[in-house]
Structure formats: structure tokens, C-alpha cells
Specification:
274 residues; mainly alpha; Four Helix Bundle (Hemerythrin (Met), subunit A); 9 helices; globular
Length: 274
Amino acid sequence: MIDEPISETRRFNPVPSLLTLCNAFCGFASIVYAIASYARGEALPEACIWLLLGAMVFDTLDGLSARLLNAKSLHGANLDSLADAISFGVAPAVTVFVFIKRNCPATSLVATLLIWSVSLFYLGCTLWRLARYNTLLTSSTKKDDGCFLGLPSPAAASMIYSAGLFLPKLNLGPHLLFSFLLGYAFLTGLLMVSDVPYPHVRRCVSGEPRVLSFVFICVVFGSIVMFGITAMVIWAYIYFLIAPLAELLVRKRAGRPALAFLFFPFGRKPKRRT
């Protein structure tokens, strides 16, 4: 994801753009796997979440390589947004549709329309968030405060895939699971376009004091090595929940409307920059 203003004064280098394309390829493969599993009547394959992780890795590497090679360009910035739209927008939206459709307890027209509505809402929120992010990035002259405005689309996608992998194991019952999935996908999309400040990951791992940052990194990687995907999902949910809960607490103490951040007026210029 783009995190600095872009200029066209540097010579074009294909390496960052090739890494960005790998991000998009992972998203496309995830779509294929999700649709294939639905067609066979199988559960969401674990390969989808590994492909999402691959997309996130390539999304990080393309920005890193662009900085190291001094190769940031408007072409690369636009390509990055398109790749993010595929991997973190279209792919999880397709997953929302096929997963909820497969767990739908009825085949009524109303249920089908609800599934379509939630899937399209999620996709629309992702695209809106990416467009808002790029617009604020190019128009803002304020210094980066280390926070995203709203839930980042890669984190939102990880919430969708983790739900597809782990919720069926809870045995909630078809009707409860269906209702929960609809609300879960809707809330995830809403948080992407909300006014909640989510910290950059690099802020979590490079803060002060450095000893605490080092301990935090060791705990995260150690838990992932020991518990695999389960640990990654738990850390993702901690990131997913801690920002809105903290925002609720801050607003409550300040006497402001507690849930106003979920209904961010899109036309208003925010005080914080993503």
C-alpha cells in the first residue's frame, strides 16, 4: 500500500511493479480456489488464507523495493491500488458470497438478496477506502501520524478469511451462523470506511522503548512458529478489535457520541490522515 507522496521525477524500475503483479496474482488464485471449493461443496480451503498472506507479503515488498531502488512512480502507485482492489477487495468479497451462500439455511429470494447485498457492500467499502486513502495521500500536506483512517483492507480481508476457516468449527447452528456471517461481513466493511484510527504495523514494531518493541516482535513470531495459522488469526483479531474499543473509550470519556465513528461522513475532510 502506498504510504508516501508520489512523483514522476525518478526513472521507472520494473521490480516493484512485478512484485505488485504477484500481489494481484495471489488475489486471483484465491478467487479461483474459493469458487472451486464452492462448486465442489467443500469448505473454504486453507490455501486461500496462505494466498492472502502471500498477497500481503508482496504488497509490503513492492513498497519496500520501491524505496530501496528509489523507483517510486505514478504508474506503480496506480498498479498498487488495482492489485489491492483485487486481492483485498474482490477476492474477500467473492469469499463472503460463496461462504455465506454455502452456509445459508434456506434458498429463498430474500436470503439470496441479503447475501448479494452484503458481498457488494463489502466490495464497495474496500474500493471506497482505497480511493479515499489515495486521495488523502496526494492532497494532504500534514505529517504522517502513524495511523490509518479506518481498518486497512488487508486486515479486513484477513478477518473474512479467518471467519471462513474457523467459524464452521464452532457449531453455531445454520440460522445463527448465517445471521452472524451477514453482520460480521457488514461490520468489517463498515470499519474500513469508518473514522477509527488503526496504527501502522511499523509503528507497533518500531516504537519506544525499543526493548518492548523487540519483545513484542519475538512474542508474535514465536507464537506463529508454535501455533501456526491459529496464532496469526488471534493477532489479527487483536488488531481488528483493539482500535475501535479504544476509540469508544476515548469518545465516552470526552463526552462525544460513542458510535459516531462508524458513520463517517464521507464528504467531510478528516482530521487524521490515513
